[in-house]
From TrEMBL:
<protein>
    <recommendedName>
        <fullName>UDP-N-acetylmuramoylalanine--D-glutamate ligase</fullName>
        <ecNumber>6.3.2.9</ecNumber>
    </recommendedName>
</protein>
<dbReference type="GO" id="GO:0008360">
    <property type="term" value="P:regulation of cell shape"/>
</dbReference>
<keyword id="KW-0963">Cytoplasm</keyword>
<dbReference type="GO" id="GO:0005737">
    <property type="term" value="C:cytoplasm"/>
</dbReference>
<comment type="similarity">
    <text>Belongs to the MurCDEF family.</text>
</comment>
<keyword id="KW-0573">Peptidoglycan synthesis</keyword>
<dbReference type="InterPro" id="IPR013221">
    <property type="entry name" value="Mur_ligase_cen"/>
</dbReference>
<keyword id="KW-0133">Cell shape</keyword>
<dbReference type="GO" id="GO:0071555">
    <property type="term" value="P:cell wall organization"/>
</dbReference>
<dbReference type="Pfam" id="PF08245">
    <property type="entry name" value="Mur_ligase_M"/>
</dbReference>
<feature type="domain" description="Mur ligase central">
    <location>
        <begin position="113"/>
        <end position="298"/>
    </location>
</feature>
<comment type="pathway">
    <text>Cell wall biogenesis; peptidoglycan biosynthesis.</text>
</comment>
<dbReference type="GO" id="GO:0005524">
    <property type="term" value="F:ATP binding"/>
</dbReference>
<dbReference type="Pfam" id="PF02875">
    <property type="entry name" value="Mur_ligase_C"/>
</dbReference>
<keyword id="KW-0547">Nucleotide-binding</keyword>
<dbReference type="Pfam" id="PF21799">
    <property type="entry name" value="MurD-like_N"/>
</dbReference>
<keyword id="KW-0436">Ligase</keyword>
Length: 458
Protein backbone atom coordinates (compact mmCIF):
# COMPACT_ATOMS: atom_id res chain seq x y z
CA UNK A 1 0.00 0.00 0.00
CA UNK A 2 1.07 3.61 -0.41
CA UNK A 3 2.41 5.12 2.79
CA UNK A 4 2.02 8.68 4.05
CA UNK A 5 0.68 9.92 0.73
CA UNK A 6 3.69 8.55 -1.14
CA UNK A 7 3.19 7.39 -4.70
CA UNK A 8 3.89 3.67 -5.09
CA UNK A 9 6.37 2.46 -7.71
CA UNK A 10 6.57 -1.20 -8.63
CA UNK A 11 9.64 -2.47 -10.47
CA UNK A 12 9.26 -5.79 -12.31
CA UNK A 13 12.62 -7.48 -12.81
CA UNK A 14 15.66 -6.83 -10.62
CA UNK A 15 18.39 -6.69 -13.24
CA UNK A 16 20.56 -3.67 -14.06
CA UNK A 17 17.67 -1.52 -15.31
CA UNK A 18 15.30 -2.62 -12.53
CA UNK A 19 17.80 -1.83 -9.79
CA UNK A 20 18.47 1.57 -11.37
CA UNK A 21 14.76 2.46 -11.50
CA UNK A 22 14.28 1.31 -7.89
CA UNK A 23 17.21 3.40 -6.62
CA UNK A 24 16.07 6.49 -8.51
CA UNK A 25 12.46 6.00 -7.38
CA UNK A 26 13.54 5.72 -3.74
CA UNK A 27 15.71 8.83 -4.08
CA UNK A 28 12.79 10.75 -5.56
CA UNK A 29 10.46 9.86 -2.69
CA UNK A 30 8.45 6.96 -4.14
CA UNK A 31 7.33 3.99 -2.06
CA UNK A 32 9.24 1.33 -4.03
CA UNK A 33 8.68 -2.42 -4.26
CA UNK A 34 10.72 -4.70 -6.54
CA UNK A 35 9.39 -8.06 -7.75
CA UNK A 36 11.39 -10.63 -9.73
CA UNK A 37 9.95 -13.95 -10.89
CA UNK A 38 13.44 -15.49 -10.83
CA UNK A 39 16.48 -15.28 -8.56
CA UNK A 40 18.07 -11.88 -7.88
CA UNK A 41 21.87 -11.51 -7.96
CA UNK A 42 23.42 -11.08 -4.51
CA UNK A 43 25.04 -7.73 -5.34
CA UNK A 44 21.66 -6.34 -6.46
CA UNK A 45 20.02 -7.63 -3.25
CA UNK A 46 22.76 -5.98 -1.19
CA UNK A 47 22.20 -2.67 -3.01
CA UNK A 48 18.44 -2.81 -2.32
CA UNK A 49 18.96 -3.74 1.35
CA UNK A 50 21.38 -0.82 1.69
CA UNK A 51 18.85 1.58 0.11
CA UNK A 52 15.97 0.27 2.24
CA UNK A 53 14.02 -1.06 -0.76
CA UNK A 54 11.56 -3.92 -0.19
CA UNK A 55 11.78 -6.76 -2.75
CA UNK A 56 10.73 -10.32 -3.49
CA UNK A 57 12.22 -13.01 -5.73
CA UNK A 58 10.91 -16.22 -7.26
CA UNK A 59 7.35 -14.93 -7.45
CA UNK A 60 5.05 -11.98 -8.24
CA UNK A 61 2.66 -11.24 -5.34
CA UNK A 62 -0.35 -9.63 -7.00
CA UNK A 63 -1.68 -7.72 -3.98
CA UNK A 64 1.72 -6.03 -3.62
CA UNK A 65 1.92 -5.17 -7.31
CA UNK A 66 -1.59 -4.13 -8.36
CA UNK A 67 -1.78 -1.08 -6.06
CA UNK A 68 0.79 1.10 -7.81
CA UNK A 69 0.65 4.43 -9.63
CA UNK A 70 3.49 3.41 -11.94
CA UNK A 71 5.20 0.16 -12.88
CA UNK A 72 8.66 0.02 -14.44
CA UNK A 73 9.07 -3.17 -16.44
CA UNK A 74 12.35 -4.87 -17.32
CA UNK A 75 12.92 -4.85 -21.11
CA UNK A 76 13.10 -8.65 -21.04
CA UNK A 77 9.53 -9.10 -19.75
CA UNK A 78 6.98 -9.22 -22.62
CA UNK A 79 3.53 -7.62 -22.46
CA UNK A 80 2.10 -11.13 -22.83
CA UNK A 81 3.36 -12.09 -19.34
CA UNK A 82 0.32 -12.77 -17.09
CA UNK A 83 1.31 -10.27 -14.39
CA UNK A 84 1.84 -7.51 -16.99
CA UNK A 85 -1.61 -8.19 -18.50
CA UNK A 86 -3.15 -7.79 -15.01
CA UNK A 87 -1.23 -4.53 -14.47
CA UNK A 88 -2.60 -3.15 -17.75
CA UNK A 89 -6.13 -4.29 -16.84
CA UNK A 90 -5.80 -2.47 -13.50
CA UNK A 91 -5.09 0.78 -15.38
CA UNK A 92 -1.61 1.18 -13.91
CA UNK A 93 0.88 3.16 -16.00
CA UNK A 94 3.62 0.90 -17.39
CA UNK A 95 6.89 2.49 -18.47
CA UNK A 96 10.44 1.47 -19.28
CA UNK A 97 13.43 2.39 -17.15
CA UNK A 98 14.63 4.93 -19.76
CA UNK A 99 11.20 6.61 -19.61
CA UNK A 100 11.31 6.75 -15.81
CA UNK A 101 14.86 8.11 -15.85
CA UNK A 102 13.94 10.73 -18.45
CA UNK A 103 11.49 12.32 -16.01
CA UNK A 104 14.33 13.11 -13.59
CA UNK A 105 17.19 13.99 -15.96
CA UNK A 106 16.91 17.77 -15.48
CA UNK A 107 18.53 19.91 -18.18
CA UNK A 108 20.95 17.24 -19.37
CA UNK A 109 21.20 16.21 -23.03
CA UNK A 110 20.65 12.75 -24.49
CA UNK A 111 22.15 11.11 -27.59
CA UNK A 112 20.18 7.85 -28.04
CA UNK A 113 21.30 5.20 -30.52
CA UNK A 114 19.26 2.29 -31.85
CA UNK A 115 19.29 -0.15 -34.77
CA UNK A 116 19.44 -3.89 -35.32
CA UNK A 117 23.26 -3.93 -35.56
CA UNK A 118 26.10 -1.65 -34.52
CA UNK A 119 24.36 0.00 -31.54
CA UNK A 120 27.02 -0.86 -28.97
CA UNK A 121 29.98 0.13 -31.16
CA UNK A 122 28.37 3.43 -32.17
CA UNK A 123 27.39 4.22 -28.58
CA UNK A 124 30.88 3.53 -27.28
CA UNK A 125 32.43 5.53 -30.14
CA UNK A 126 30.13 8.53 -29.57
CA UNK A 127 30.87 8.42 -25.83
CA UNK A 128 34.60 8.29 -26.65
CA UNK A 129 34.32 11.40 -28.86
CA UNK A 130 32.50 13.40 -26.15
CA UNK A 131 34.75 12.18 -23.34
CA UNK A 132 37.94 12.99 -25.27
CA UNK A 133 36.55 16.48 -25.92
CA UNK A 134 36.26 17.02 -22.16
CA UNK A 135 32.47 16.75 -21.86
CA UNK A 136 30.75 15.70 -18.63
CA UNK A 137 29.28 12.53 -20.15
CA UNK A 138 28.24 9.00 -19.19
CA UNK A 139 27.49 5.90 -21.27
CA UNK A 140 24.20 4.27 -20.28
CA UNK A 141 21.41 1.96 -21.41
CA UNK A 142 22.17 -1.47 -22.83
CA UNK A 143 25.88 -0.71 -22.47
CA UNK A 144 27.38 0.62 -19.26
CA UNK A 145 25.07 1.12 -16.29
CA UNK A 146 21.37 1.91 -16.45
CA UNK A 147 20.21 5.44 -17.24
CA UNK A 148 18.16 5.68 -14.04
CA UNK A 149 21.04 4.49 -11.83
CA UNK A 150 23.41 7.02 -13.41
CA UNK A 151 20.92 9.82 -12.70
CA UNK A 152 20.49 8.61 -9.10
CA UNK A 153 24.17 8.19 -8.30
CA UNK A 154 26.21 10.44 -10.60
CA UNK A 155 24.19 12.64 -12.96
CA UNK A 156 26.06 14.07 -15.95
CA UNK A 157 25.42 16.87 -18.45
CA UNK A 158 25.35 14.43 -21.37
CA UNK A 159 24.11 10.84 -21.68
CA UNK A 160 25.10 8.64 -24.63
CA UNK A 161 22.61 5.80 -24.59
CA UNK A 162 22.22 2.48 -26.38
CA UNK A 163 18.50 1.83 -26.75
CA UNK A 164 16.77 -1.42 -27.73
CA UNK A 165 13.33 -1.79 -29.27
CA UNK A 166 12.18 -3.42 -26.02
CA UNK A 167 13.08 -0.25 -24.09
CA UNK A 168 11.30 1.94 -26.65
CA UNK A 169 8.11 -0.14 -26.42
CA UNK A 170 7.23 1.39 -23.04
CA UNK A 171 8.10 5.07 -23.51
CA UNK A 172 5.59 7.93 -23.22
CA UNK A 173 7.56 11.19 -23.01
CA UNK A 174 11.14 10.01 -23.59
CA UNK A 175 12.74 12.47 -26.00
CA UNK A 176 16.42 12.38 -26.99
CA UNK A 177 18.03 15.59 -28.21
CA UNK A 178 19.84 13.48 -30.82
CA UNK A 179 18.37 10.16 -31.99
CA UNK A 180 20.33 7.78 -34.21
CA UNK A 181 18.83 4.93 -36.26
CA UNK A 182 21.59 2.82 -37.81
CA UNK A 183 19.72 0.07 -39.69
CA UNK A 184 16.74 -2.28 -39.44
CA UNK A 185 16.85 -6.00 -40.19
CA UNK A 186 14.54 -8.72 -38.84
CA UNK A 187 15.30 -9.49 -35.19
CA UNK A 188 13.34 -10.38 -32.03
CA UNK A 189 10.24 -10.98 -34.18
CA UNK A 190 8.86 -13.36 -31.56
CA UNK A 191 8.19 -10.25 -29.43
CA UNK A 192 6.39 -8.51 -32.30
CA UNK A 193 3.83 -11.15 -33.37
CA UNK A 194 6.29 -12.19 -36.12
CA UNK A 195 5.45 -8.97 -37.99
CA UNK A 196 8.41 -6.94 -39.25
CA UNK A 197 6.24 -3.80 -39.43
CA UNK A 198 5.69 -3.96 -35.66
CA UNK A 199 9.43 -4.19 -35.04
CA UNK A 200 10.10 -1.28 -37.43
CA UNK A 201 7.48 0.87 -35.70
CA UNK A 202 9.11 0.09 -32.36
CA UNK A 203 12.52 1.28 -33.58
CA UNK A 204 11.04 4.51 -34.97
CA UNK A 205 9.52 5.35 -31.58
CA UNK A 206 12.94 6.85 -30.78
CA UNK A 207 11.84 9.99 -32.69
CA UNK A 208 8.12 10.13 -31.85
CA UNK A 209 8.44 12.80 -29.12
CA UNK A 210 11.17 14.83 -30.79
CA UNK A 211 10.55 18.47 -31.72
CA UNK A 212 11.96 20.80 -34.37
CA UNK A 213 14.84 21.57 -31.97
CA UNK A 214 15.99 17.94 -31.98
CA UNK A 215 17.95 15.85 -34.49
CA UNK A 216 17.23 12.47 -36.08
CA UNK A 217 20.30 10.88 -37.72
CA UNK A 218 19.61 7.94 -39.99
CA UNK A 219 21.04 5.63 -42.63
CA UNK A 220 19.99 6.71 -46.13
CA UNK A 221 21.16 3.39 -47.60
CA UNK A 222 18.79 1.22 -45.54
CA UNK A 223 15.73 0.30 -47.67
CA UNK A 224 13.55 -0.49 -44.65
CA UNK A 225 14.28 2.88 -43.05
CA UNK A 226 13.65 4.73 -46.33
CA UNK A 227 10.28 3.08 -46.89
CA UNK A 228 9.09 3.83 -43.35
CA UNK A 229 10.39 7.41 -43.53
CA UNK A 230 8.18 8.06 -46.59
CA UNK A 231 5.16 6.96 -44.54
CA UNK A 232 6.15 9.25 -41.64
CA UNK A 233 6.72 12.24 -43.89
CA UNK A 234 3.39 11.74 -45.70
CA UNK A 235 1.63 11.44 -42.33
CA UNK A 236 3.44 14.57 -41.02
CA UNK A 237 4.52 12.58 -37.97
CA UNK A 238 8.21 13.49 -38.15
CA UNK A 239 9.20 16.70 -36.36
CA UNK A 240 12.97 16.48 -35.74
CA UNK A 241 15.56 17.81 -38.16
CA UNK A 242 16.73 14.78 -40.20
CA UNK A 243 20.39 14.28 -41.06
CA UNK A 244 21.48 11.32 -43.20
CA UNK A 245 24.65 9.32 -43.77
CA UNK A 246 25.33 7.30 -46.94
CA UNK A 247 27.87 5.46 -49.06
CA UNK A 248 25.76 5.73 -52.20
CA UNK A 249 27.40 8.25 -54.52
CA UNK A 250 24.10 8.85 -56.31
CA UNK A 251 22.40 10.07 -53.12
CA UNK A 252 22.25 13.79 -52.47
CA UNK A 253 22.30 14.80 -48.83
CA UNK A 254 19.49 17.25 -47.92
CA UNK A 255 20.90 20.77 -47.46
CA UNK A 256 24.33 19.17 -48.06
CA UNK A 257 24.45 18.16 -44.37
CA UNK A 258 25.32 14.71 -43.08
CA UNK A 259 27.91 12.02 -43.72
CA UNK A 260 29.20 10.48 -46.94
CA UNK A 261 31.95 8.06 -47.97
CA UNK A 262 33.27 8.22 -51.52
CA UNK A 263 36.59 6.96 -52.94
CA UNK A 264 37.77 5.86 -49.46
CA UNK A 265 37.23 9.34 -48.03
CA UNK A 266 34.70 10.13 -45.30
CA UNK A 267 33.13 13.57 -45.31
CA UNK A 268 30.93 14.95 -42.52
CA UNK A 269 29.16 18.23 -43.18
CA UNK A 270 27.45 20.10 -40.37
CA UNK A 271 26.92 23.75 -39.52
CA UNK A 272 28.68 24.92 -42.65
CA UNK A 273 31.89 23.12 -41.73
CA UNK A 274 33.37 20.08 -43.44
CA UNK A 275 35.33 17.26 -41.80
CA UNK A 276 37.28 15.01 -44.18
CA UNK A 277 39.19 11.87 -43.26
CA UNK A 278 40.56 8.82 -45.07
CA UNK A 279 38.79 5.63 -44.03
CA UNK A 280 42.26 4.05 -43.76
CA UNK A 281 42.98 6.37 -40.80
CA UNK A 282 39.99 5.05 -38.84
CA UNK A 283 40.82 2.64 -36.02
CA UNK A 284 37.91 0.30 -36.93
CA UNK A 285 37.81 -1.28 -40.37
CA UNK A 286 34.92 -2.83 -42.30
CA UNK A 287 31.99 -1.25 -44.12
CA UNK A 288 29.60 -1.56 -41.17
CA UNK A 289 32.05 0.33 -38.95
CA UNK A 290 32.25 3.11 -41.52
CA UNK A 291 28.48 3.57 -41.16
CA UNK A 292 28.86 3.54 -37.36
CA UNK A 293 31.67 6.09 -37.58
CA UNK A 294 29.62 8.51 -39.70
CA UNK A 295 26.71 8.30 -37.24
CA UNK A 296 29.01 8.95 -34.28
CA UNK A 297 30.79 11.78 -36.07
CA UNK A 298 27.56 13.60 -36.98
CA UNK A 299 26.35 13.21 -33.36
CA UNK A 300 29.60 14.69 -32.07
CA UNK A 301 29.41 17.65 -34.46
CA UNK A 302 25.82 18.37 -33.33
CA UNK A 303 27.10 18.24 -29.74
CA UNK A 304 29.55 21.00 -30.66
CA UNK A 305 32.84 19.10 -30.84
CA UNK A 306 35.52 20.57 -33.10
CA UNK A 307 36.49 18.75 -36.29
CA UNK A 308 40.14 18.37 -35.29
CA UNK A 309 39.19 16.73 -31.99
CA UNK A 310 36.84 14.29 -33.74
CA UNK A 311 39.51 13.33 -36.29
CA UNK A 312 42.03 12.72 -33.51
CA UNK A 313 39.56 10.67 -31.41
CA UNK A 314 38.49 8.47 -34.33
CA UNK A 315 42.10 7.36 -34.78
CA UNK A 316 42.46 6.33 -31.10
CA UNK A 317 39.10 4.58 -30.60
CA UNK A 318 39.27 0.95 -29.49
CA UNK A 319 36.42 -1.37 -30.45
CA UNK A 320 34.21 -3.53 -28.28
CA UNK A 321 35.13 -6.85 -26.75
CA UNK A 322 33.38 -9.70 -28.62
CA UNK A 323 32.73 -7.52 -31.70
CA UNK A 324 35.27 -8.37 -34.46
CA UNK A 325 37.89 -8.54 -31.71
CA UNK A 326 41.31 -9.77 -32.82
CA UNK A 327 42.42 -12.52 -30.40
CA UNK A 328 45.74 -13.94 -31.64
CA UNK A 329 47.69 -15.29 -34.58
CA UNK A 330 48.63 -18.94 -34.10
CA UNK A 331 51.06 -20.41 -36.66
CA UNK A 332 49.94 -17.91 -39.28
CA UNK A 333 46.19 -18.29 -38.61
CA UNK A 334 44.31 -15.23 -37.28
CA UNK A 335 41.53 -15.79 -34.72
CA UNK A 336 38.72 -13.22 -34.47
CA UNK A 337 36.03 -13.15 -31.77
CA UNK A 338 32.69 -11.80 -33.03
CA UNK A 339 30.55 -13.57 -30.42
CA UNK A 340 28.25 -10.53 -30.23
CA UNK A 341 27.00 -11.39 -33.74
CA UNK A 342 23.73 -13.01 -32.66
CA UNK A 343 21.86 -12.52 -35.94
CA UNK A 344 22.50 -13.20 -39.62
CA UNK A 345 22.92 -9.56 -40.58
CA UNK A 346 25.79 -9.14 -38.09
CA UNK A 347 27.54 -12.14 -39.65
CA UNK A 348 27.07 -10.61 -43.11
CA UNK A 349 28.92 -7.48 -41.99
CA UNK A 350 31.67 -9.56 -40.36
CA UNK A 351 32.23 -11.70 -43.47
CA UNK A 352 32.10 -8.62 -45.69
CA UNK A 353 35.11 -7.24 -43.81
CA UNK A 354 37.21 -10.44 -44.07
CA UNK A 355 40.15 -10.17 -46.48
CA UNK A 356 41.55 -13.73 -46.06
CA UNK A 357 40.18 -17.27 -46.62
CA UNK A 358 37.86 -17.85 -43.66
CA UNK A 359 36.88 -20.75 -41.44
CA UNK A 360 33.54 -19.65 -39.99
CA UNK A 361 32.26 -20.85 -36.60
CA UNK A 362 28.45 -20.66 -36.61
CA UNK A 363 25.66 -21.89 -34.40
CA UNK A 364 23.82 -21.72 -31.10
CA UNK A 365 20.20 -21.15 -30.28
CA UNK A 366 18.68 -20.53 -33.73
CA UNK A 367 16.04 -17.78 -33.93
CA UNK A 368 14.57 -19.07 -37.20
CA UNK A 369 17.53 -17.73 -39.19
CA UNK A 370 17.39 -17.33 -42.96
CA UNK A 371 20.98 -18.01 -44.03
CA UNK A 372 20.32 -17.19 -47.71
CA UNK A 373 21.59 -13.63 -47.34
CA UNK A 374 25.02 -15.06 -46.38
CA UNK A 375 25.19 -17.42 -49.36
CA UNK A 376 27.22 -15.26 -51.78
CA UNK A 377 29.74 -14.22 -49.13
CA UNK A 378 30.09 -17.82 -47.91
CA UNK A 379 30.71 -19.07 -51.47
CA UNK A 380 33.27 -16.32 -52.01
CA UNK A 381 35.15 -16.33 -48.71
CA UNK A 382 34.44 -19.38 -46.52
CA UNK A 383 36.49 -22.59 -46.90
CA UNK A 384 34.86 -24.48 -44.00
CA UNK A 385 32.06 -24.05 -41.46
CA UNK A 386 32.41 -25.28 -37.89
CA UNK A 387 29.03 -25.68 -36.14
CA UNK A 388 28.94 -24.98 -32.41
CA UNK A 389 25.53 -25.76 -30.99
CA UNK A 390 23.12 -28.34 -29.63
CA UNK A 391 21.13 -28.46 -32.90
CA UNK A 392 23.24 -27.80 -36.02
CA UNK A 393 20.71 -29.11 -38.54
CA UNK A 394 19.64 -25.64 -39.84
CA UNK A 395 23.27 -24.82 -40.71
CA UNK A 396 23.80 -28.16 -42.47
CA UNK A 397 20.55 -27.70 -44.41
CA UNK A 398 21.55 -24.20 -45.52
CA UNK A 399 25.18 -24.80 -46.54
CA UNK A 400 25.37 -28.47 -47.56
CA UNK A 401 27.25 -28.56 -50.88
CA UNK A 402 28.15 -24.86 -50.64
CA UNK A 403 31.38 -25.27 -48.62
CA UNK A 404 33.79 -28.24 -48.79
CA UNK A 405 33.52 -29.07 -45.08
CA UNK A 406 30.92 -28.65 -42.31
CA UNK A 407 32.08 -29.92 -38.91
CA UNK A 408 29.92 -30.43 -35.79
CA UNK A 409 31.22 -29.49 -32.34
CA UNK A 410 29.55 -28.96 -28.97
CA UNK A 411 31.91 -26.62 -27.09
CA UNK A 412 34.18 -23.64 -27.69
CA UNK A 413 37.26 -25.80 -27.17
CA UNK A 414 36.12 -28.40 -29.71
CA UNK A 415 35.18 -25.69 -32.20
CA UNK A 416 38.54 -23.90 -31.98
CA UNK A 417 40.50 -27.16 -32.37
CA UNK A 418 38.36 -28.25 -35.33
CA UNK A 419 38.69 -24.82 -37.02
CA UNK A 420 42.47 -24.81 -36.50
CA UNK A 421 42.77 -28.34 -37.95
CA UNK A 422 41.24 -27.25 -41.29
CA UNK A 423 43.11 -23.91 -41.42
CA UNK A 424 46.34 -23.05 -43.19
CA UNK A 425 48.83 -20.23 -42.76
CA UNK A 426 47.21 -17.05 -44.08
CA UNK A 427 43.65 -18.07 -43.10
CA UNK A 428 41.37 -16.50 -40.52
CA UNK A 429 39.12 -18.31 -38.04
CA UNK A 430 36.04 -16.17 -37.39
CA UNK A 431 33.62 -16.86 -34.53
CA UNK A 432 30.47 -15.09 -35.74
CA UNK A 433 27.63 -17.36 -34.62
CA UNK A 434 24.41 -15.74 -36.03
CA UNK A 435 22.61 -17.28 -33.05
CA UNK A 436 21.89 -16.70 -29.38
CA UNK A 437 24.29 -18.43 -26.99
CA UNK A 438 21.95 -19.91 -24.42
CA UNK A 439 22.14 -23.53 -25.61
CA UNK A 440 25.76 -23.96 -24.50
CA UNK A 441 26.76 -20.71 -22.73
CA UNK A 442 25.45 -18.20 -20.17
CA UNK A 443 25.49 -15.36 -22.74
CA UNK A 444 27.49 -14.10 -25.72
CA UNK A 445 30.21 -12.73 -23.37
CA UNK A 446 30.71 -16.20 -21.87
CA UNK A 447 30.86 -17.69 -25.38
CA UNK A 448 33.46 -15.13 -26.47
CA UNK A 449 35.58 -15.62 -23.35
CA UNK A 450 35.55 -19.40 -23.75
CA UNK A 451 36.56 -18.98 -27.40
CA UNK A 452 39.49 -16.75 -26.44
CA UNK A 453 40.62 -19.17 -23.74
CA UNK A 454 40.48 -22.05 -26.24
CA UNK A 455 42.61 -20.07 -28.73
CA UNK A 456 45.19 -19.36 -26.02
CA UNK A 457 45.28 -23.10 -25.27
CA UNK A 458 46.31 -24.07 -28.82
Amino acid sequence: MTTGGQKRLIVLGAGESGLGAALLGKQQGWDVFVSDGGAIKDNYKDAMHHAGIEFEEGRHTEEKILNAQCLVKSPGIPDKAPIVKKVHEAGIEVCSEIEFGFRYKGDSKIIAITGSNGKSTTTKMTFHLLKEAGYDVSMVGNIGISFAKQIAEQPTEWYVMEVSSFQLDDIHRFRPDVAVLLNITPDHLDRYDYKLDNYIASKFRITENQTGNDFFILNQDDPVINKYMLNMISAHSLHAKTIYFTMNNEQKLPENEGGMIHDDEMTINYGGEELKMSIHDLSLQGKHNQYNTMAAGISARIAGIRREKIRESFATFEGLEHRLEFVATVRGVDFINDSKATNVNSVWFALESMKKPTVLILGGQDKGNDYNELMELVKDKVKAIVCMGVDNAPIHNAFKGVVPAIIDTASADEAVKAAFSVSEKGDVVLLSPACASFDLFKNYEDRGKQFKEAVKGL
